[in-house]
Amino acid sequence: MLASGAVLAAAGREPVEPPPPQAICRQIVAEQVGPDQSDASAMIQRALDQCRTGTMLKLVAGVKGGALVSGPLQLPPGVSLWLDRGFTLYASRDPQAYDRGQGVCGRNTARGGGCRALISLDHGHDQGVYGEGVVDGQGGQSMQGRAESWWQLARRAQHEHMEENAPRLIQIRRSHDIVLEGITLRNAPNFHVSVSQTDGFTGWGMLIDTPGDARNTDGIDPASSSHVLLAHNWINTGDDNVAIKAGTTGPSRDITIIHNHFYQGHGLSIGSEVQSGVSDVHVDDLSLDGTTNGLRIKSDRSRGGLVSDISYAHVCMRHVRWPLVLDTLYNPRAEGDALPEFRDIRFSHIHALEGGQALWRGLGAGHPLRVAWQDVQVDGGRSGIATHLRLKLLGGPASPLPVGDDVWIDGHPGNDAAWGCGDAFPALPSGISPADTKESASLPGRLAHDTGAAGTLQVGAGHYATIAAAIAAASAGTRIMIAPGVYAERLSLDKPRLQLVGQGSTPDAVRIVAATSAAEVGGTSRTATVYARAPGVRLSNLSIENAFSRLHPGVTEGAQAVALAASGDDQHFDHLHLIGYQDTLYAGSAGCASEQGPCRPARQVYVDSRIDGAVDFIFGDALAYFDHDELHGAGRSQVTLTAQSKRYPQQISGYVFDHCRVTADAAVHSISLGRPWRDFSTVVYLQSWLDARVIPAGFSEWGDRQRLKTAYYAELDSQGPGAALQMRESWEHTLARAAADRWRLPALFGQRVLPAR
By the 8 A CB rule, do 694 and 660 touch? Predict the structure, then answer.
């Protein structure tokens, strides 16, 4: 029985790899290569249905390799599937193939669940999916007949507060003794592996590999299941690497997670649905390298329950922002009587390298977190956020100790030597996960696939003293992690796909500051604190300031001073705080042959960031999308937000502000949404909140009123006291919702041309 492997591991003995079925009922040899071929699901399903219980269908590559494209497949009870080495099963990109009959698959609705999975096992037993082949969900490719990919659909659902209807790769329900062994799963449209109401599940030796910014692509999610074993897996994904849940369909218990490696993702989670209870979870020998969270238990009053007898041992983390999280207030606004209670949670031999912050939030004095530690250390970390915590120390180092309201600590740290991580962070296996994932070129901010070969560098905490030194040592695709502090530097990012990530709890914890004005250096273009010129650059969780005006408040002549100058293509910026006065952010093209073009496009995305300034403080001719950002006026009585400079009608250029907020200091009397720097200036505000001080005309002139005849300014459903659309001037466009869809992120970047004006 598969359950025995989990029991052996929980008892401290090594689990045994489950053997595959020996009998082959049929073999299909695929000679075609690549995903551009006809759907073979009917042929594969017919072969599966002809197999008897206890046998397997084998999909084999031909001499030159092989692949098939398939829609949903249902494995009959007791029948297994083998994907041979060199074979790839591509998921169909046709939403209708997965639709459950409601016509919503591939669309966003108030409730999800409108798609079938690629591979389903329902009421199955003694079977699985085996081999060294690949299942590719093609999540980054445009859906058939649509202008967006599955991943873009999911991101749009987030912004629209809806649920995406996208297929999972493998879904196992109401089954027992199921095995997934050796296979590679990549580019899932939604979850990779979902297991529910199943007794006996083993995931062994799998590689799960999907880009870290592909939303809702959990690795393995056991829910309301028991006797689960996850061993020797490599998981790199865009959401929880593993998430254990227990909603209303039953508890989750007897779960062993041993000898696994996690990379990008949200870490190892329990919750947030735990109404039926989670117990007897044992984690041993786990590395997490670059995940957002490390070991996390999360829930709230709307979906809480008892989480108990959880043990974590021999866990190494590196570049993890929140290494330890126990949070009963996952949604602080949640209401209900399903109170979460976390007790008998044990951590032993836990080491988080290079900083991070812990979060310990109990529900109240009557429902505190009950936790035990033995040798737990977060290097360079802070005490974190702690409330209603009962912590028992069992020996060994304990650093840093939690500090907060209603925190009780029993015992003292020991003096024994700390457990070390050694070489606990191997690179994500290359060769198993090919680099030719054919990610959608239309997906904004998409980083090139990184198998870890480019490496990670650390600034601060005893490593590189300056960011510039780390950049000099970096190669294309390197990730540079920056410890909290103030860095008085000017930086040039000229290496493709370079990533700078602040390790603080907020963007302002890592401050990059310079103070250079146009008068000093002979022009605005030479003043930036940070230049992002190379394609694929990504900046995250940083504060970037040009402090010239703050340090010289009386100087107005030649006071242009740029904080960030971005001029590369496929660049992504999230959780930034950009601070300046005049010309804070240059979001410009990658270069033009002349004033009339042609210009090389620079497509940029700015997400969940704040931009401070006063005079034309977002300017340039990039195609820039601002998503849930705050534009904050400061420093003078009259503020102008944008000076967009599209040069000619066909240029791929324009600014779109989607669900942004326009705010200002108390001293500001009026706010202009923008003025045309060049004749074809293009600025669109979608469902954004506007301060009362926004001028009735919305936009203003640049001295020459003739530009307003060729410029394009538009709004859709502006909110707030400044949204006086009836008072806008006649040349401004008020968008209908159907027309506005062309300006949203998937369509705008997917088409790579601007909509008709």
Answer: no
Q: What is the pLDDT, as a whole number, of residue 746?
A: 64
| Residues ≥6 apart with Cβ < 8 Å to 428 | 209, 234, 236, 261, 263, 451, 452
How far out from the chain centre does Cα 478 lie?
A: 18
Say what the pLDDT of residue 5 is.
46
pLDDT at 258: 95
Q: Read off φ and ψ for residue 284, nearest 5 degrees.
A: -145, 140
Alpha-carbon distance 98 to 168, whole Å? Answer: 10
Give the pLDDT confidence score for residue 175 in this predicted structure: 97
**Cα-Cα-Cα-Cα dihedral of 743, 747, 753, 757, to 10°?**
-30
Q: What are phi and psi of 96, to 5 degrees?
A: -65, -25
Give the residue among 545, 528, 640, 638 at the shortest CA–CA distance from 587.
Answer: 528
Q: CB-based burial of residue 220 (10 Å sphere; 0-12 exposed, 13-18 middle, 19+ buried)?
A: buried
Output Rg (C-alpha) for the chain, integer angstroms. 27
CA distance 677 to 560: 15
Q: How far is CA 633 from the centre of its chain?
A: 29
Catalytic residue among 266, 282, 349, 351: 266
How does DSSP assign 376-442, residue by residue?
Answer: EEETT-EEEEEEEEEEEE-SS-EESPP-EEEEEEES----SPPPP-TT--PPPPTTTS-S-----TT
Strands 176-181 and 571-579 turn out to be: unpaired
Q: What is the pLDDT of residue 734?
A: 80
The residues of the chain scoring below 70 in pLDDT are 1-13, 381-383, 430-454, 461-462, 703-705, 738, 746-747, 749-757
**What single DSSP character describes residue 168?**
-
Write down the catalytic residue from 209, 239, 583, 691.
Answer: 239
Contact at 8 Å (CB) between 168 and 191?
yes
The amino acid that residue 508 corresponds to is D
Dist CA 528 CA 539 (whole Å): 15
DSSP state of 694: B
Tell me the helices (H) and strands (E) count for the chain, helix number first.
10, 57
Rounded-to-integer distance, Cα 218 and Cα 237, Å: 7
What is the distance between the alpha carbons of residues 479 and 428, in angstroms, rounded to a whole number? 14
The alpha carbon torsion through 258, 263, 266, 269 (nearest 10 deg) reads 0
Q: Is 412 a catalytic residue?
A: no
Q: Residue 444: what pLDDT? A: 27
The Cα-based distances of 166 to 96, 152, 155 in angstroms read: 11, 11, 12
Q: Is residue 266 annotated as part of the catalytic site, yes or no? A: yes
Q: Are 614 and 641 in contact (CB under 8 A)?
A: no
Q: Taking the chain, what is the end-to-end CA distance rounded to the nearest angstrom?
A: 65
Q: Residue 693, SS3? A: coil
pLDDT value for 705: 64
DSSP β-bridge partners for residue 201: 178, 228
The candidate with the shortest Cα–Cα distance to 209, out of 457, 435, 477, is 435
Task: Tell me the one-letter amino acid at 521.
Answer: V
